[in-house]
Amino acid sequence: MKKLRLAPSVAILAGWLCTAFLILPFVSLLLHLSWRNIWSVWIESGGTPLFYSLWSTAISLCVTLLFGTPLGWYLARGQGILWKAIEILLLIPLLMPPLVIGLLLVYFYGPYGIMGHLLTHFGLSATNTILAVVLAQLYESVPYYVFAAQAAFSQIDIKFERISLSLGVSPWQTLRRVIFPLARPGLLIGFAMAFARAIGAFGAVIVVAYYPNTLPVSIWIALEEQGLPSALPLALLLILVALPLPLATVLWRRVHHD
Amino acid sequence: MIELSCKLPRHTFTLDIRLQIESGTVYSLFGPSAAGKSSTLHVMAGFENRMQQAYFSVDGQVLLQVGGKKTINVPSWQRNIILIEQGSLLFPHLTVKQNIYYAVNRHHQDELEKWIEEFGLAPYLDAKPKQLSGGLVQRAVLVRAFAKRPRMLLLDEAFSALDGPLRRTLQGAVMDLQKELGTTIIMVTHQLSEAQRMSDRLGILHNGKLLQEGTPEELMLHPHSWQTAKLLGYTHLLEDIRGQKFALHPNRVLLGNHPHLGPVLQGRIQRRFWYEGECRVTIKLMDRSVYPDDSNVEISVPIDTDIQPGEIQPFTTVHPPYFSHEFLISENILHIPESLGQGFR
After folding, report:
1. Lesser CB count within 10 Å: N end or C end of chain B?
2. From CA A112, how far away is CA B241, in angstroms rounded?
3. Distance (Å, rounded) from C-alpha A239 to C-alpha A128?
4. Domain B2-224+330-344 homologous superfamily, CATH
5. Mutant choice from A166, A178, A180, A253 vs B, greatest count of B C-beta within 10 A
6. Is B105 in the A-facing interface, judged by CB distances under 8 Å?
7. Looking at chain A, which residue has its C-alpha nearest residue B81?
8. Could you give the residue ranges of the DSSP H alpha helices within chain B?
């Protein structure tokens, strides 16, 4: 009996320790912040990087939705070895360290890379431009959205699709009226994850686009040049910008689907 | 007239079937699991694309032709053929009303409201499907299907998840609507009672082959092969005094000696028990060669019969079906009209 009673206590303790491990650094950030000059730091050093971060993230998320949603669909429903192979290939950008992604991007999209040459013909550059930031964010975030979309579409019973089609509703209308509404919770989670990855993208971004400074890059520069106290207000700004959407998504899912 | 012929490779066999079905009737495909029944419905509904050869037409309109000179494949959503599958589902994100009106033609609004009342769905229109019982969900699924006025309704084990009384109620409701609208219904079931009760004709499918088809009565009285007979509930193959083989069905037996009705057998009563509302006895046959090799046969008896275990009783098999030597399994012996399956030639 004693053993049985002990087991839940140990589990509860482990749960609390895990939560504390994850949350306490954030609390420490709040304790060490110099609240008096936070606003001035945000105005002086945070405004422009915040703008670049939001702007590039907005573009990269649009691209992610546009191309990642069909890919997620085909990974979920596509038959044959091709889609299985693509699924495995997509694991590469997902598992690769962001810094390595950045190096690969330099070789491919940089001034001496294949795509870099091509972009130059159109008067574009993927080095130290907003395009470079978007590309780096995409490589860091797309796989998260695609796999979330794949999972969301996979869990929809294929019978729903058949029912709709056999009721005379076209494939496009079936997607709009049945598939997307049923996949929405999973797609939203994927979108929130992609957003968090994109806005917080650092490793790949700093290799291909030191300029224009995005918020994560600005934090690193502030840390390097002025030390921790200057970096902390920017870190808080990033958290405040990055957290609401994923949190709202999780809460929305809880309210509507649990 | 509905005409279907198709060759479809499956995991362990090739579905090779040819059917002609009168429009406006109810036709059942009956057979054991994994016989190719659902695949046949999927071909008709437009959800199967691995056919080697196929031809499917409804009232002269060719909806599918594969393997011939010209390939035709009308998409599923343009066929006006509705498939209702096992555990058939309402869209979970829509209310019952939104489900019923999902693809409805507004011209039939009054009729639809009448059906909603008749099927007892009126109080649940604003509910979500997960708030409904299985029976109510199935009612809503049927109303949604009939509301579309399909030219064919395909029922794939549509009632199998329901309990007995509810199943019979819904079967009755479907039969009434079918008569009212003249919809052709093709249903797949592994329950013989359901197939016999609802169908004008039924086909026995086994390992992708149509063993026999006919009215429920024709099949029951004259199965062409022992394979078919077994699927229809015949339990034993016996020899009469001339050495000819006939099949024994537990419900086609009379206690007593009535030689003018069929072969008379004799056996010792082993056990008396109840089976699906019938009183049955197990009898150990005397001096008979039996196939399969089990001389204990079951027969139904009137509930007021006063027989006890240990007694020796004569019983008469009433007009049993006889089989010649090729009784084990006969291949597809249906007559195939020349007009059918043009893509094959």
Report:
1. C
2. 97
3. 24
4. P-loop containing nucleotide triphosphate hydrolases (3.40.50.300)
5. A166
6. no
7. A166
8. 37-45, 96-100, 109-118, 134-147, 164-181, 192-198, 216-221, 226-231
* Of A165, A171, A178, Cβ closest to residue B91: A178
In the block, residue with structure tokens 């059906």: B115
Half-sphere exposure of B315 (CA within 13 A, CB side): 30
The ipTM, to two decimals, is 0.79
Q: Do A167 and B93 touch (CB under 8 A)?
A: no
Taking only the tens place, the pLDDT of each residue in B253-267 is 888 888 888 888 888
B78 touches chain A (CB under 8 A): yes
Query: Does A257 lie at the interface with B, CB-CB under 8 angstroms?
Result: no
Check the CA dihedral B319-B322-B328-B330 and report its sign.
Answer: negative
Q: Check CB contact of A158 with chain B, cutoff 8 Å.
A: no
Residues A166, B144: C-beta atoms closer than 8 Å: no
Which residues of A fall within a CB distance of 8 Å from B45? 162, 166
What per-residue confidence (pLDDT) applies to B330? 40
Does domain B235-320 fall into CATH 3.30.420.360?
Answer: no
Query: What pLDDT score was predicted for residue B300?
Result: 87
In this structure, are residues A220 and A206 in contact, taking their beta carbons and an 8 Å threshold? Answer: yes
Contacts of A226 (CB under 8 A, 6+ apart): none
Flag whether residue B93 sits within 8 Å of chain A, measured between CB atoms: yes
pTM here? 0.78
B88 and A160 within 8 Å at the Cβ level: the answer is no
Place of tokens 């997307």: A180
In this chain, the answer to whether the domains covering B2-224+330-344 and B235-320 adopt an identical fold is no
Does A166 sit within 8 Å of B91, measured CB to CB?
no
Determine whether the interchain pair B83/A162 forms a contact, defined as Cβ–Cβ distance below 8 Å.
yes
CB contact under 8 A, B77 and A165: yes
The mean pLDDT value for B291-301 works out to 75
Q: What are phi and psi of B57, to 5 degrees?
A: -135, 150
Whether residue B194 contacts residue B170, with contact meaning beta carbons closer than 8 Å, is answered with: no
Residue ranges of chain A whose pLDDT lies below 70: 1-4, 257-258
Q: Is B246 helix (H, G, I), strand (E, B) or coil?
A: strand
CA angle A139, A145, A146 (to 5 degrees): 90
The domains of chain A, with CATH numbers, are 35-257 (1.10.3720.10)
Place of tokens 């024709």: B218
Distance CA A130, CA A60 (A): 11
